[in-house]
Amino acid sequence: MSTRDLIGYGANPPVVKWPNGARLAISVVVNYEEGSEYSILDGDPKGESGGESPSPAGPGERDLANESFYEYGSRVGVWRIMNILDKHKINGTFFACALALERNPEVGPEIVRRGHEVMGHGNRWEEYYKM
């Protein structure tokens, strides 16, 4: 028997009243994992294969194109996202891997300084569903 609730409120959802008459609430979540993904350089048997495009690299081979996506995220992307959130006065939650924050030590304090929350996303980005 399933222990999941797949029914919910059905035809009788609760009436929710948001502050200032808002009709919608949005939660902004940013995954910050750059530097915590699978990497041959970290002694992993494979590099990260879940990137912007399929990886042609075989086991034990580096995929420099895919690595560059992660490097862009830590060098440029995270800062652009924080600037956009600042511009629109939005506080977000950063799902951050500890190793990513350790490898780019300016990011963690800056996330907090700008008023965002940090949510622990493990030490590294691993396939937790296999544990």
Short descriptors:
131 residues, alpha/beta, 3-stranded parallel beta sheet, 3 helices
Brief synopsis:
With 131 residues, the protein is of the alpha/beta class. It is 28% helix and 9% strand.
Describe the 3D structure.
The two termini are 23 Å apart. By secondary structure, the protein is an alpha/beta fold. It has one domain (28-130). It has a three-stranded parallel sheet. The chain contains three helices and three strands, in the order βαβααβ.
Order of helices and strands: EHEHHE
Mean pLDDT across all residues, rounded?
91
**Global structural class:** alpha/beta
- Summed up, the domain count is 1
Question: What is the radius of gyration?
Answer: 19 Å
Number of helices: 3
The N- to C-terminal Cα distance equals 23 Å
**Biggest sheet, in brief?**
3 strands, parallel
- Uncertain residue segments: none
How much β-strand is present in the residues?
5-15%
Q: How do the strands line up in the largest sheet?
A: 1-2-3
- Count of extended strands: 3
The gross shape turns out to be extended
Oligomer: single chain
Helical amount: 25-40%
Organism: marine metagenome
InterPro entries: Glyco_hydro/deAcase_b/a-brl, NODB_dom
Protein name: NodB homology domain-containing protein
Region (Disordered): 38-64
